[in-house]
Description:
Layout: H1 16-21, H2 24-29, H3 31-64, H4 69-118, H5 121-126, H6 129-171, H7 173-179, H8 183-220, H9 222-227, H10 231-284, H11 289-330, E1 351-359, E2 369-377, E3 379-385, H12 391-398, E4 409-411, E5 414-415, H13 421-426, E6 428-431, H14 442-447, H15 455-464, H16 468-472, H17 491-505, E7 509-513, H18 521-530, E8 539-543, E9 555-560, E10 563-568, H19 570-576, H20 578-594
Parallel strand pairs: 3-8, 3-9, 6-7, 7-8
Antiparallel strand pairs: 1-2, 1-4, 4-5, 9-10
Amino acid sequence: MRLSDKKKSGHGPGNSWQAVRLIRPFFLQYRMQLLTGFLSLLAVNGLQLVIPRIIKHAIDGLQNESVSSATLRQYGSLIVGLALCIAVFRFGWRYMILGFSRHLEKDLRNWLFSHLLTLDRIFFQRRTTGEIMALATNDLAAVQLAGGMGLVAFADALVLSLAALSFMAYIHPGLTLIAIVPMPILALLTRFLSKRLHRYFKKVQEQFSKLTEFVRTSINSIRMIKAYTMENNQTKRFDALGREYVRDNLRLAKVQGTLFPVSGLVANTSMLLVLLLGGRLTIQGSITIGDFVAFTSYLFMLTWPMMALGWVTNLFQRGVTSLQRIQNVLNEQPVIITPSQPAPFPEKVNSIAVNNLTFTYAGQNDPILRNVSLEIHWGILGIVGRTGSGKTTLAHLLARLYPVGMDTIFWNAIDVNKLDLAKVRRKIALVPQDVTVFSDTVLDNIAMGKPGATQAEIEAVAKAAAIHAEILALPKGYDTRIGERGVKLSGGQRQRIALARALLSDRQILIIDDGLSAVDIETEHEIIGSMQPFIRERICLVVSHRLAPLAQADQLIVMDRGEIVARGDHEQLLRENRFYATIYEYQTSRMEKGK
């Protein structure tokens, strides 16, 4: 079977509206909250539009000498009351709409994270950790800002501008037409620059992903960097990435720096035209001084939407760009899937059969495995062979980390492709060579294999993994925190903790893929022997370059160039397979010399 990347619909740069439709369910979910927020926003805008009318009546009354001090106090009290109402409603829309944006960010992050957990190894071989971290931080923040302040600014600008224009037209239609003459220039410029905003912001986010990935790999490899005195080299590389990030941001800033001043220039040009022509109309008596003051007040309100147009465009372009990047990941689908109607799952896995299995990695021409056929039963199966012979690939395929063709791997004579994938993986415990430990206590790292396990159970598996005594020697024993990626432990200790975790999980299939390579051969021999009580009536596969510990295995296979070239027990292979006998004699002679 050839493993190739599955073509995804919607993968790559998509349509902006497709990206926006991605978050439509969240708008529906929080529709009452949004409705309350937008009603509060409308109330704020409506009350703001009333104030210039009050000022108009006050000024016209003063001009005509038809108002008293008591009337002016009433006008002032009314304005103060309206201002208080505006403050209350403004708090309401901020709490509701900005609160919605935080819910949107949380829910989208949870969706992204849960989806990432469903994807298989093939996806993570194509995407860096830094890129995924950037999506969960920078990109989600951009979506949140667009769904919060961006949405508010857009709605506010739209409602306020339409209402202000209506009031302006009511006062003097001709003057209103003069005031909006410069606006088409702003609209054309915004349309032209928005495409550049999208392109430059995408480049900025991609460069941020590279920066994040570089920092992650540098911290994870800090011991190697120090051992090879590569600090200056890494600093220079980081500086180069940082400079490129700054350059990308400066390109983006040029576009933003063009939008905002031009928006302000258009708004101020409108104000200048109104002052020149509106002032003349006032002098001529076509409009009253109160009308002129009210008109300029409404125009001032209109200035904010015009200036906000560039800011809103920037927020929305950032949000849509980030949303498209997130959508590309959400469009990814795992290659290995559970069938719509899975076959009945066996209570106990008694046997695994491999039938003419051929496998090729994506991007490679030559198969890693060629027509591999194998029967595996309870007990220990040892897999040995030269580097690159296909041992790890076979182990990973049996662990269901990569897809296999139909009728190639069977559990109890049932094709694994017909079984529920989650149930299959819950039957398997895998100990890889490059084990994973977490920045937590030793106890919690082992207990991950069985949440709620007792101290006695944890100590039992630790003894079986030959790590119990070394754990007790740590400063706080099982309660010792082992640092990021187990930095406080040796490679052999990390591997044995991972093995203890796998043994504690009590799963029916245990696969140790060179997971004891960092321990000495005597310890490995001891571990293989002490594992026996934990693997009774279970299947255990051990991939190893060292043959002596596997002498206890129930069955051994020798692999070469993707094929099984020999099989049998230890004594049989010593007699019948020259490669096995030669390597065994070489390794045992080195052990004796080492003693």
